[in-house]
Amino acid sequence: MILKNILLAFAVVGLIAGCGNQNGTNTNQQVGDSVVSSTDTTASQQQGLVEFEEPVFDFGKVKEGVVVEHVFKFKNAGTAPVILSQVSASCGCTTPDFTKEPVLPGKIGEIKVSFNSLGQVGTQQKIVTVSSNAENRVTTVQIKGVVEK
Question: 122: part of which helix (H) or strand (E)?
């Protein structure tokens, strides 16, 4: 009989803990002689958010062989630090360098992109893919323009 009551108490505790706490707030409820406590889940729901000031940079017209550089700045508009895990270019002629430290909420991070126009005559559009732990896990920036002979 005691075992049956203990199992019933655990079942009730499980139901109470599993239901009704959808807003992530901390609640304590009395069940028999026990206090059931659910923890605040908002901390686990916090995420960073990458917002670029200028996701496209048009370098205009340049002569072949010129190296064009541009720094893309982004703000972490989220509530948790953003960590860039990978930044890769669509072409070997484009080289990205990026902020390696976590970017705290409200702070600015940078991605410096260098485009070597040697052998790239004509209209150019190079895409840089940015992977992170942010809410928008994969974002892109692009550098474009015309390379003249």
Answer: strand 122-132
Length of the chain: 149
DSSP string across 15-58? HHHHSS--S---EEEEETTEEEEE---HHHH----EEES-SEEE
Query: In which band, very low, low, confident or very high, does the pLDDT at 128 lie, cut at 50, 70 and 90?
Result: very high
In the chain the domains, ranked by start, together with CATH numbers, are 2-44 (no CATH), 50-148 (2.60.40.10)
Measure the CA–CA gap between 17 and 71, rounded to whole angstroms: 49
Please write the tens of the pLDDT for every residue from 81-91. 999 999 999 89
Q: Is the pTM of this model over 0.85?
A: no
